Amino acid sequence: MVLVYAEATNGEFKKVAHEVIVYGKQTADVLGTECHALVLGDAPGAEGLGKYGAAKVHRISSPHLEGFDAAVYTVAITEAAKQLGATVIVVPHNSTGKNITGRLAARLEAGSVAGANAVPMMKDGYFTVTKPVFSGKAFADVQVLTDVKVISLAGNSIPVTEAGGDAPVVELSVEPPAPKTKVINHQVATGRTPLPEAELVVSGGRGLKGPENWAVIEDLADALGATTACSRPVADSDWRPHHEHVGQTGVAIRPNLYIAAGISGAIQHLAGVNNSKTIVVINKDPDAPFFKAADYGVVGDLFDVLPRLTEAVKKYKGQ
Amino acid sequence: MKLLVCVSKTPETTTKIQLTSDGTEIDTTGVQYIMNPYDEWYALVRALELKEAAGGTVTILNVGPADNDPVIRKGLAIGADDAVRIDVTEEKDSLFTARQIAEFARGKDFDLILFGKETISYNGSEVGAMVAEFLDLPYVGDAIGLEVEGTQATVTRDIEGGDEVIEVQTPIALSAAKGMAEQRIPNMRGIMMAKRKPLEVVQAVDFPDTTRVASYQKPAEKGSVKLIEPDNMDELVRLLHEEAKVI
Ligand SMILES: Cc1cc2nc3c(=O)[nH]c(=O)nc-3n(C[C@H](O)[C@H](O)[C@H](O)COP(=O)(O)OP(=O)(O)OC[C@H]3O[C@@H](n4cnc5c(N)ncnc54)[C@H](O)[C@@H]3O)c2cc1C
Ligand SMILES: Nc1ncnc2c1ncn2[C@@H]1O[C@H](COP(=O)(O)O)[C@@H](O)[C@H]1O
After folding, report:
1. Ligand 2 pocket member B68 (CB < 6 A)
2. Which CATH code of 3.40.640.10, 2.40.160.40, 3.40.50.1220, 3.40.50.1360 fits the domain covering A195-318?
C-alpha cells in the first residue's frame, strides 16, 4: 500500500496535498496496490481527498500534533505506516517535507528519494524514481533497494486531476510523543502564492537598476496573479527579500510560466529556473545568454516592455 | 559551546554537467570542486560567530575520500578549529552518509550540529534530518536565524511565504539557509594556520546502500527562442494563452 501524508495548511488542504495524493495513486497503480492518505490533526473535508485518488483516509488526532515538530510527525507517520503495512510513503518536498523525509528514512532504515519529479517505474526489476540533481542541470534515475521506500515529491511536478468521489475517514490510534520544540511565532504573508508553489512567476534582475523601480515587476505580477522573484545580486543588495532569490543557491522553482526581466541568464540562475514549463525573457541585449534558454524573447528596454505587457495582460483578462 | 559543522563537496557552480557516454555516471573530467555553499557561507560562519561570542570549538566533518581534503582545509582556513574526515573510497547515498556522521557524533556531546540547507549536487535536504533521527535530536531545517543563550536555542526557519520561530533546548541539529550569516573569505593568515590545524581521518562504519543511481539524463534542449517585437505584447499574450497554454 502507498501511504501519502496529506498536509493541511491552517486546517485546509491545498494544492500540495492534492498533488501528493494524485502521485501516490499513480504510484499505487504502478505497483498494483491502493493509495491511502494520512491526515495529522484536525482538518475538515478530509473525505474530499478521495477525489484525488485516496481509497481511504486515516487520521491521527493528538494535541502533540498542533505545532509542527519534525520528530513527532515522524513517529506519527512511521507508526501509521507500520500499522497499515505501507511499502511506499509519500510526502511533499516543501518546508515540512524537508524536515521529515530524512527522519522517516532513518527511522525506517528505508531508501529515500527527496524531490522526485516523476512517477516511479519498475525498470530492470528495480523500483526507480527520477529526481532533478545539480539544481536541475540533470536528472537522476534512482533505484530504491529497500522494501519500504520514502519519496518526497517536488511541487508543480504533476498535474492535479480529480477522478473518484469521497473516501471514508477512519481514526488511527497512534500516540505521538510530546514535542521538544515549541513554535513561538508563525508568520505567513498573505497575498501572493509562496514562490515554491507558484505557477506564474515574474522575476527581476540587476537590469531593474534599483529597488525603487520594482513597480513594473509588481504591476505585471498583479495583472497575472503571479509571484515575484529576483536574481541573487538583487537579493544580496537588499533590493528584494532573500526568499525571492531563485537559482542554484536560492529557491529552485518549476512554475508553468517564468518571466525574467533584466536578468542575464548566468548558469547559476538558470539552474534554479530551467525546469519552468515556459520561459519568457525580456532583455535589451540580444546576446544575453538567457535567450538561449527561453521559449519567447523580447529584445527591448524592460521599462518600456513590461508596462506594455501588463496592459496586454489586462486587456486579455478583461475579455 | 561544542559545535559540529558537516560539510560536503560539490562541483563549482559554473560547471556544465556532462554525462559519460552510456549515461550511467557524471563525467568528472575537468570538474572543479568547492565546499557546498550553504555549508560554507551559512552553517560554518554562524557556528564561528557563536563560538566567537560565547567561546567553544568548531569542528568540521566530511564523509568522503582523501580528494576532499582541500575543501576541508578551506573550512579550517575560514576559522574552524579542527576537522574530521570519515574515510570512504567513494561518496555514497544520504542515509549512508548520515549514519557515518551520527556514529561519529554519538556520545561526543556536541551542543549544535549544523548542516547546509541542501547540497547543490544532490539537492536532498535529507542528511541533517537523518542524523537528527539517528541521534534522537530535535531538528530544524532551512534555518535563517539562530540565537543561543545557555542551553536555550531560538531558531527561525523559512516556511512557504513566511517564517516560524522555534524555541528548543540544545543539543539540536539544524540546517542553515540564506540569511543566517554573511559569507567569509579566508585571509592569508587563515590559510597558513589551516595547514597546521588537525585533520583527523576516521574509519567508516559498515552500512548497506539503500539507493543507487542507475542512470542520468540531461534536460531536453530548448528549441530556438521565438522573438516578439516590443510593441506587440498582445501577440506575446496570445502565444502564452494559445500556444504555451500557461495563462
Ligand atoms: C557560487 C555562486 C552561486 C550563485 N548562485 C546564484 C543563484 O542562485 N541565482 C542567481 O540569480 N545568481 C547566482 N549567482 C550569480 C550569477 O553568477 C550572476 O552574477 C547573477 O545571476 C547575475 O544577476 P543579473 O542577471 O540580475 O545581473 P547581470 O548579470 O548584471 O544582468 C543584468 C541584465 O539586465 C540587462 N538589462 C540592463 N538594463 C536593462 C533594461 N533597461 N532593459 C532590459 N534589460 C536590461 C542586461 O543586458 C543584463 O543582461 C551565483 C554566483 C556564484 C559565484
Ligand atoms: N558527504 C558529506 N559529508 C559531510 N556532510 C555532508 C555530506 N553530504 C551532505 N552533508 C551535509 O548535509 C547537508 C544536506 O545534504 P543533502 O541531504 O545531500 O542535501 C549538507 O549541506 C551538508 O551539511
Report:
1. no
2. 3.40.50.1220
